[in-house]
Amino acid sequence: MSKASRFALPAVPAVLLSIISVQGGAALAKQLFPVLGAAGTTSLRIGLSAVVLLAWYGPG
After folding, report:
1. Quick check: 41 and 33 in contact, CB under 8 A?
2. pLDDT at 2
3. Contacts of 29 by beta carbon, 8 Å cutoff, 6+ apart
4. How far is it, in rounded angstroms, from Cα 28 to Cα 44?
5. Residue 3 pLDDT more than 90?
6. What is the spatial distance between Cα 12 and Cα 14, in angstroms, rounded to a whole number?
7. Contact 39, 47 (CB under 8 A)
């Protein structure tokens, strides 16, 4: 049985968690724009989201 089928997050908490994630990431990105620029900040956000998805849905 895969991880996804063992744990199901109800819709409302899932939406709230995604809102917090997007807004928190945007708040952190705002601080990184002067240091990394737009391309660097975007790359960092995409890279971190890939790591989170790999940890959650990764092989095994």
Report:
1. yes
2. 56
3. 41, 45
4. 11
5. no
6. 5
7. no
Residues 6+ apart with CB under 8 A from 4: 57
pLDDT tens for 9-27 read 899 999 999 999 889 988 9
Contacts of 21 (CB under 8 A, 6+ apart): none
Torsion on CA atoms 34, 36, 39, 43, rounded to nearest 10? -130
pTM for this model (two decimals): 0.64
- In the predicted model, is pLDDT for residue 47 greater than 90? yes
Q: Say if residues 56 and 2 touch (Cβ distance below 8 Å).
A: no
User: How many angstroms separate the CA atoms of 9 and 50, rounded?
Assistant: 20
How far apart, in whole angstroms, are the C-alpha atoms of residue 1 and residue 12?
Answer: 25
